[in-house]
Amino acid sequence: MYYRVPSFLGALLTASPLAKDKKGIFNWILQRASACVLLAYFLFTIAYIAVNPDLDYPRWRQLYSSSVMQIFSLLAVLALVTHALIGLWCVYTDYLTERLLGPKATLLRNSFQAVTVAITAAYVIWTFSIFWSL
Amino acid sequence: MSRNRPVNLDIGTMRLPITAYVSILHRVSGVAIFLGLSVLLWCLDKSLESPQGFYLVKNIFDHPAAQVIIWGVLSALSYHMVMGIRHLVMDAGYGETYEAGRASAVISATIVGCIIGFLAFWVLS
Asked: Minimal CA–CA distance to B3: which of A22, A105, A87, A89?
C-alpha cells in the first residue's frame, strides 16, 4: 500500500509562493475553480426551469433582476472566460501542431486563438448588455 | 531541443481504451458548448428582453429543428458536466488507478446516456 497526494493538494503545494514557474499549475487550479462555478450556475438554471414548467415572464425577469442572480451571473461569465480560454488553448496546442499539420500549424493555431478570444469577448459584451438592460 | 525528433505516439494506429474515448469526447463536448453558447445566450437575451421575446423562446421549442439544436447543446453540456465531476473526483485522489478509471468511465458514460435519453424525452416532443 502506498499513499498518493491528491492532485489538488499537489497543485496547491506547487502553486505556493516558493515555486518558481507557476503558470501551468495556476491554469490547472483556475480550470477547476471555474468548473465548479459553472457547474453550480448551470445546475441551478436547469433545475429552476425544470421545477417551474409554468414559468411566466414577470417571474423570469424578476429572477435575473435580483442582485444575487446578477452577482452569480457575473461570476459565471468570469468563470466562462477562464474555462473556455484555458480549455481551448489545451485543445489547440495538442492538435494544431507542426507534427500533425506541418509548418503552417503555428499560424493556423494562432488564428484559432485569435478567433477564440474574439468570440469570448463578444460573449462577454453580449452578456453584459443583457444584464445592463434589466 | 531538435525540431525533428522521432515521435513514438501515433494515436491513429492505436486501439484506444474507453478512458481515451471519454477524454476525447470531453474535449469535443467542450468545443461544442463554446459554439452552442451562442444559442443559450440568444435564448437568455430574447427571454429577458420583453414578454413577446419570452413567449417567442418558449414557443420556438415547438419547432423540431430548434428542439434538435437545444437537445444537442444540452447533451454536450450534460456530458461535459458529468465527466467534469469525474475529473474533480480523481483530482481529490479517488479512483486514480487504471481499473478505477475504466470503471468510472463506464459508470459516467451510463449516467450521461440516461441524462441524454431523458433530455430527448423532455425536449424532443
From this structure: A105
CATH classification (class only), B16-123: mainly alpha
- Judge if ipTM > 0.95: no
| Residue A52 pLDDT | 94
Q: Residue written as cell 472566460? A: A81
User: CB–CB of B88 and A6 under 8 A?
Assistant: no
pLDDT at A21 over 80: no
Smallest Cβ–Cβ distance between B34 and the set A39, A84, A133 belongs to A84
Q: Which residue has the cell 475504466?
A: B102
**Average pLDDT of the segment spanning A17-21:** 68
What is the CATH number for A91? Answer: 1.20.1300.10
Q: Where do the structural domains in chain B lie, given as residue ranges?
A: 16-123
Domain that holds residue A104: 34-132
B6 touches chain A (CB under 8 A): no
- Residue A2: inside a domain: no
Which of B5, B33, B48, B54 has the most A C-beta neighbours within 10 Å, making it the best mutation to test the interface with A?
Answer: B48
Find the angle CA(B52)-CA(B55)-CA(B57) to the nearest 5 degrees. 110
Torsion sign over Cα B86, B88, B94, B95: positive
Give the number of domains in chain A.
Answer: 1
In a 3-state reduction of DSSP, which class is residue A119? helix
Between residues A39 and B14, which one has the greater pLDDT? A39
Indicate whether B1 pLDDT > 90: no
Highest mean pLDDT among A5-14, B6-15, B81-90: B81-90
